[in-house]
Amino acid sequence: MKVTFKIWRQENRNTKGAIKEYKVDGLTEDMSFLEALDHLNELLVLKNEKVIAYEYDCREGICGQCGVFINGRAHGPHDNITTCQLHMRSFKDGDTIVVEPWRAASFPVLKDLIVDRSAFDRIMEQGGYITAKTGTAPEANAILIPKEVSDSAMDVAACIGCGACAATCKNASAALFASAKINHLNNLPQGHPEAHKRVQEMTYQMELEGFGSCSFTGACEVECPEGISITNIAEMYAKYTKAKLFG
Amino acid sequence: MAANKLVFRKTIIAGTGLFLCLFLIVHLSANWILLLPEETARELYNSYATTLRENLFIKSISYILYAFIVLHVIYALLITIHNRKAKPQKYVVNHFLQNSTWTSQNMGLIGTMILLFIVVHLANFWARVKLGMGEIIELDATGNLDVYKVTFSLFHNIYYVIFYTVLMIPLGLHLNHGLKSAFKTLGFYHKKGLRISAKVSLIYAVIISIGFGVIPFFVYLK
Amino acid sequence: MKLDSKIPEGRLEDKWRNYQIKAQLINPANKKKLNVIVVGSGLSGAGAAATLAELGYDVQCFCYQDSARRAHSVAAQGGINAAKNYQHDGDSVWRMFYDTLKGGDFRSREANTYRLAELSAPLIDHFVQQGVPFAREYGGVLVNRSFGGVQVQRTFYARGQTGQQLLLAAYSQLYKMIRAKKVKMFPRSEMIDLVVIDGKAKGIIVRDLVTGELKRYVADAIVLATGGYSRVFRLSTLAIGCNGSAIWKAHKRGAFFAAPSFTQIHPTALPQTSEAQSKLTLMSESLRNDGRIWVPKKKEDIRKANDIPEKERDYYLERRYPSFGNLAPRDIASRAAKERIDAGYGVGRLKNAVYLDFRHAIDKLGIQTIKDRYENLFGMYKKITGIDAYKEPMQISPAAHFSMGGLWVDYELMTTIPGLYAVGECNFSDHGANRLGANSLLQASIDGYFILPNTINNYLAGALEEDIPTTDHIEFEKAEKEVRVIIDRVLNINGTKTVDHFHRELGKVMWQECAMSRNKKGLEKAILQIKTLKDEFWSDVKVTGSGNELNTELEKALRLADFMEMGILMCTDALEREESCGAHFREEFQTEDGEAVRVDENYSYVSAWEYDEGDFKLHKEELEFEFVQPSVRSYK
Fold first, then answer.
1. How would DSSP label each residue in B54-112?
2. I want to staple C157 with a disulfide (CB 3.0 to 4.6 A). Which of A14, A216, C79, C340 is the partner?
């Protein structure tokens, strides 16, 4: 299998980048997309060129590190998957594949396809936790949580923090990410004591980080590898309003 | 804790938007008078117009309406500027139609078209009727300003007919996405309810845009 | 040097309590003056960093990923064991302890293993409090399932993403302490060397992976929480970035490496399909509850699976282990698969897989039941392979999965270098020669949250009186210089082969000779092969780019250089242990029908290797079984 990659190359944060073209032969349909890039990198090394920098770690769809924009879609042409789960069989022999880093002011490019997503960590820092020290926990079954509540918390807790939501959003909004964490914790009884504070502080941090606002295009939920629903953003707004009124 | 600018602005846009949606219902139901035969329509329409101008309550509502339009536009503008800054660099290739609708991606553009429409619309009617600009408007048999005649003559200009009709398309698109999003922005997150609200928004948008859109043609053919 | 495991006095049940009673305390005002470095931000690292910070220490935490939330704890699917006995099915701390010890084939310490079981119950309390959405009954209480061939239901889980949920809980607790300014987080920072001053661990050299800058950090104590090293096989279920460099550097600076060859091979991963493959994805072990494993009876059978009639299929696990059948423990199932594949019965493109067939289960239970149980796994299988497993059998294959071995630690989790601790998968403590399913999340968490924060005081109390060195100290200079030399050397070879090429070659040797079954001849050959490969690497590798920039190729090269040395030690260890126990199977030590033969008289010890200028010196920590009698594992 032979494809043409058009890949964003950028030396570092302070330099300008550009798309560069690479013709690659010798790929197979079974290869994952990242393995195809690995293969390209080996060819580059042998040609004495610098390798393309891109991120990955677990390569099984859970760590959230491997996000790139492939042919005009976050994580490539399929809905609800990560880049590492994309395989070359999704492309045709002779295809041109355009690969770009996540684009958002809050995700500056560090090199080639690698961006800095630490803004997400800083949002988490502002309340994406339950304030309780190790060793202070009551007996686990002393806190009864209805299955529906626990299940719906799990639906959002599944967020892998890949950044596809903000990357695909035309406004670079991090609302889906923030809402996932806020709703996970605020809907559980353990998270209630800090619920109002959490929603206010985390949404405020989202603003400070320079993310845009949500205009409900719905693109995020289509690209989210965990299929987190956009209704979570509405729920976050409800919680925010409630916090403002009663918090 | 300072109010979140992003949420605050969106709330203003959603709140004013919902009010404008209500207004459109009232506006449309009155405008349907124009679909009646001329003899009934003229009198009814003119007296309705007079009531709008002179009733104190309606007058004060109208100021709120102006204010809301202005707020809606200003905040939309602010948000758009902010959002542009949040995404300074666009993708070389972006197949956003595979994950969202064209409308949802272009609310700003559509909104601008509607704003253009409103300006023209106000120049055509509000400026003449309320500010007395342009040709002097005659009185009808009952002594009301003959706004019907203003409308009638405007919609016998084929360019205006086309303008008024065609711009109902962006209005419909804007209302469809705007209404259902307003519910979400205001914190309505019941899943089944949101499915219903999406349907309601669609029906509403179709009725409003077609409802307004047919009027110029009807009048033209009268 | 005599290895002192520092096991406290008393009955098994009292040991941990006795330890705590005698442990030193440090007053809160003094804790503020003490500084701890934690390398790794997975479940054990983040748990340790957060808890130490809560206790008042100043913590600096490092990880190579872009965020602490990426650590590979995130990928554990199955669950976490705890002796809560919520299901009222006769579970107890003792039973869990015994299962774990027996599962590890009696090659771990009784006291450590007992403590693991003992602390499991409060750990679940802890995670529930932190907001982990564990599976629940309609009535609101927690659910359990059974896992990994034990007879009770003691596994807690959050869908198929338990590791993720626990890691995120630890990560959020870590960020809580970052906000409180008690932890300073350094992502994209890789520990490149350990600095030992006057025999004590005092600092680390870190490479900033964005700028390439080498940085020095000093502390009163250093905690390594760097995870497993199974990427030495290249193809494994681990994350691509997982590496053994931090513990290897610690080893070279004096920390003993215990049982390096104890590596768990998981039986149900997806097979390799091409040379370019980088990763073997794990399919949850739970599939073996309903799937039947088979290979064709005819060698090199090229028919499609569904075209092979029932009587021409060999359900080899059911044949060999009639009582456990398809649910035989991981090491046994993996070995049996390898045996069939090596004998020429493998299936799939590279003839390296066996079938895992759900047809019988679907016929018996209906497709809906199977969907309810495994829909996400079947979906994942289809995503990766493009095959619909409802219609044809899955192809699975064994893959390297977990390192039971690691830095030798005593009961306090301290290595042989004073002030250097190892927690989680990177140490050798509780699993013996084989780890039970759903025990890895448990060990990582308990080490980080409960044990280390209680034991580190004993050392730090002494550190209070000492002056903390500055980063200008000669040892820092020396260490940094050595690192610089290595980096320059790698970059200047400018040979003809890529890093991945060498990694693939290393992987092949390790997989062939030092994985599921081992023999003397093969291991001796492997050691020579790796040594040759190592020489070739240092003369013919090509790494482009420079050291002063983000250079992923350089990162890979440095990690691989350590893996090659580690591979030699793993083979050396496997060669030295002339018995079969747990995951370590020496072909010379098996019964007539292929079962493992343990040699307790000679090998009831933990091997602890000391680095000796490119060679390794063996120390033995004899295992004394005071409370249980080692028995023979049988799954017939």
1. H-HHHHHHHHHHHHHHHHHHHHHHHHHHHHHHH--S--SS--GGGTS-HHHH-HHHHHH
2. C79
